[in-house]
Task: structure prediction
Amino acid sequence: MGFLAPLWLLAGAAAAVPLLIHLMRRRAGARIDFPAVRYLLRAEREHSRDLRLRNLLLMLLRVAAVLLITLAAARPVIRMAGGGHARTALAVVLDNSLSTSAIVGGRPVLQQLQARARDIIRRSSTADRVWLVTADGVVHGGSRDAVLDAAAHAEPFGGAGDLRAATVRAAALARAAALPAKEVVVLTDGQAASWHDPLSLGDVPLHVYLPAAPAPANHAVIDVRAIPTRWTPRGAVRARLLASDSATYRITLEGRTLARGIAARDEEIALRAEPPERGWNAGTVELEPDELRGDDVRHFAVWIGPAPAVSLHPLAGPFARSALDALVQSGRAGIGNEIGFAPADEASKLPALLIAPADPVKLGAANRALEKLGIPWRFGAAVRGESMVRAADSTRALDGVIAESRYALTRIASAERTDTLASAGGAPWIVAGPRYVLVASPLAPPATTFPLHASFVPWLDDMLSQRLSGEGGIPRDVAPGAPLSRPPGVDALELPEGGAMTLSADSFTAPARAGAYFYLRGTTRVGALVVNPEAAESDLSRLTPEALAVRLGTRATNVFTDSTALTASVLTAAPQRPLLAPLLLIAAITLLAETLITAPARRRAA
Amino acid sequence: MDTARATRADLLDPATIAALGRIEVTARWIVDGFLSGLHRSPRKGFSVEFAEHRPYQAGDEPRHVDWKLAARADRWAVKQYEEETNLRATLVLDVSRSMAWSGAAARLTKLAYAERLAAAIALLFLRQRDAVGLVRFDDVVRSSVPPRVRTGQWVRLIAALEEPGSGRASHAASALEAAGRLIARRGMVVLISDLLMDPDDVVQTVRGLRHAGHQVVVMHVLDPAELDLPQSSEALFVDPESGVEVAATVADVRAMYQATVREALVEWRRALSAYGASYEPVITDAPFGVALRRAFSARQEAP
Result:
């Protein structure tokens, strides 16, 4: 039995009123002189049992009447067997994550799940409400036929999606429908990686179906990285595979095969290359097809360009000269006018790597140059004394670098995004923005130990090749469906199959299909978005029904591996019948009985 | 006919007639209304009681001459005898605290009603030349007036009836015994009481009176509220004599109470009738004529 307005049950406390009156009735009333008390005593003595029974009966009838009325106000409903099923809000969660596209028994797991979904939805009646929620978060509602059609045409998602969130959302839909019965059915391949945390669905019953067949063996490319992210023009591709045995792989760049090979189990693939391509390029690491095709190819994107041509100003100092010479000799940089490397007061164009002037007298000229170049930073007061330098990015080893003389860097208001790459004494020391890098000390030993530090030349290489050369931007790796913000100045997203998707909103979701996508400003590629499935999605290990039930952790959970049992257990809630009318009828009979018992006395009293 | 009835004081509302004057006056109106002397004495005097002397006149029977007076005073006088009635009656009136109660402000208390009823009965007896006395009692005998028929008895009875106060409890047995002692030969004892007392003592005393040859009439004075119950919802009923308290819901116990009172009246009637005593319930809202008629008929029917 349930209640549609359970708060009314609190009014049941009013049942104590007749009880209290019954207990206190002999303590109220006026004091009356009455000589014939002996007759009253005799009457009570001779009829005391009748009186007690009568009063007890009246008290019980009144208490029962109050309880019945409050119970009726709470609008109770009771489930009655027979007569079909109760009106049900049924939400079917279809796991269309990448793992369900694995071929098992000659067809994708998703097809099996779709068939189960259609079986269940067909059992619903027009009085029910039905939704289909897929793992990628898409909700299909409306008529039963519309939901059936959606179940039949559900496409596999390129990533893991969020099956847990889809289930919670399905339960919320069912609860919000305000129908007598609510059910959530989850059709999943039972992949262990999909179910981490317990669910909390309240009182909504949960039925879970997972196929009885074991998960197929799977090999996959679970990680690919272009190192560095910008090749000038040399670089490397590193990849990790998931395979139970050795696997044949192929590495491509813009469709051109860079390398083929066989990787041993757990071996990391590494390929060094100096390709002739320039600009933003898409590449893949591919394995031989297996039961799950979606993770046999993993994409990457890399910017390739010539070594940056650097124009070094003489006042930048001997240490800057030595470091640049080292880069030029190794082919990682060249001499030219592409990138300036100078004290800030001597800078006249971007991109440039700017350092503080050695002479404080030139501070004003330096700030004017910064303003002229549109850089939102200014040199402030000189700060003397040793300050430890800390890199904002822990991967950059600046530990041990000391700044002895520096200028306080002050940021002026600007909407432009800036990065603080290193700080000294808690204040910004190296800052960067679009097409500039600014150091708050001269690169000379009296001001800082940085030029003497082992990390100086790699840092200079990184700044020149990754931050200052070519178009800005670095590739971003995301999972299908991930929420994203549109980068500033980007108009569209170039699709792998050709064409472009216009980006007008400030935010958008990553495409569902894996691939390398490029941000476009006009017709120029200015960045890359690499969409690959989550590595965990390639682990097809399945939970047993018992383990899944434990991991779900929610009440009223039934886990099935038999489709017939699943279908039989769904939409079985007995129809609910309201008890309002019978309760009111019983209350009326109770009150009538009370009236019949007390009426003679009331008539005599009148 | 209606006019005639309306002017008869014995048929007026007791409270109305009581408001018109003192007991002495109202009793006369009641008795006048009741038409005293309806009965004829079945037994005529067989004894006389000295009343006064008068001078001898020719024709007087010599046996009535007071020879002792003639010898002492040398004067011939004839003894005048008051003819003794055929009945000597004693009214036994309960003046206990329970009698001084009325269920409604517009009604006479049981005691006021009983006093007027007793006065009327006494006047009736006196007008018939019956000797009548009075015993007032509560837990003890408060006062007694021996039965007499001579002039002045009426005044003595009224004076006794108008004595103030009422005692706490009722003990009719001793009063009845005292009344019996006041009547030298067979007579009548009329008990006027609310009978809120132990029936056994009363019945035993009545039995004694009956064995002594007395005629006993018991007039049970009841307020209408004692037959029903006072109008109230919840109340604490207190006995003014004993102080006993009983809390009750009137609506719940009224029917049972009424049945109990009816049963008690039947028990009184049965117990008193078993010894030849007459028993008449008298309700204080009934005209005095009704009560007088019952008392009169009880005397007529008495063995």
